[in-house]
Structures are given as structure tokens and as C-alpha cells.
Amino acid sequence: MSANLTLIITAASLIGVSVYLLLERSLTRVLVGLLMLGNGVNLLFMVAAGPSGHPPVAGKVSAEDMTDPLPQALVLTAIVIALGTTAFALAMAYRSWQLNGHDDVQDDVEDAAIRRRALRDEASDSYDLTTGGPDDDDSAPEEKA
């Protein structure tokens, strides 16, 4: 009962390429990455299911000769979830194309502010440099004796 090495390498390469594509800014590349990730994980489900056997119908064959139906059910569920995610990503990419003329995701305003502060090496106003933590003003009020 050994796993097929070709299927394992194929699934690993699909997942690796999909992770790279998911880190891109273009929504179409993210969409392709999501689809590839779904296919790679589905392939891993089928590899983990083991060798094929007889249909899981009680009374026809012994339980040892039956195929486990759980991985097949997980793959079918994953296909439905991937279809919904694909539809959502396509709608986002199309709307971004309508509004901006491209499907690249722009930087968030807060991310840009954090990047500028990091380049200037500034601490935020709510961070106390002397104690290495938040200011005492922001914490819960304490009773003074």
C-alpha cells in the first residue's frame, strides 16, 4: 500500500505554485492560484484515501475491500466551495476592472502610514518607549493612594 510518487509531486507542485500566485497583487493571478490550490488539495485527498477498491455498498463485498467514501465526499465539498470562491473572486476582479481599469489590489492607507513610520523609525503615539509597552493613559485606570 504505497502512494503514487507522481501524484504526490504533482500535488506539491500545484500547491507551491498556487501559494506563489496567491501572494501577487493581480486578482486574476490570485484567482488562478485559488483554483490551483483547490486542485492540489483535492489531489492530496485522493492520494491520502489509499488504493481504489470496490464501491462502499454494504452487503456486496467485505469491509476490507471497500473504498473509503469520506475522501470522496471531502473532494466533492471542496469542489463546491472552490466554485463559490471562484465566483466571488471573479466578481471582485470584474468590479475592480470597471472602477480602476486594472485588477491590481492597491495598498491600504494604514499600510502606507505604517511603512512611512518604519522608514523614519518612529514609534506610534500610543507606544511608550521607556517601558516598551503601551502608554499608561490607554490602560485601565488604577487607584492612587
Automatic annotation (TrEMBL):
It comes from the Bacteria. The keyword Signal does not apply. The chain crosses the membrane at residues 6-23, 30-50, 70-94. Belongs to the CPA3 antiporters (TC 2.A.63) subunit C family. Its main location: membrane. PANTHER family: ANTIPORTER SUBUNIT MNHC2-RELATED (PTHR34583). It is a multi-pass membrane protein. The keyword Transmembrane applies. Residues 134-145 have a biased composition (Acidic residues). It holds the Pfam family Oxidored_q2. This is Na(+)/H(+) antiporter subunit C. Residues 123-145 are annotated as: Disordered. It is found in: Cell membrane. Keywords: Cell membrane, Membrane, Transmembrane, Transmembrane helix.
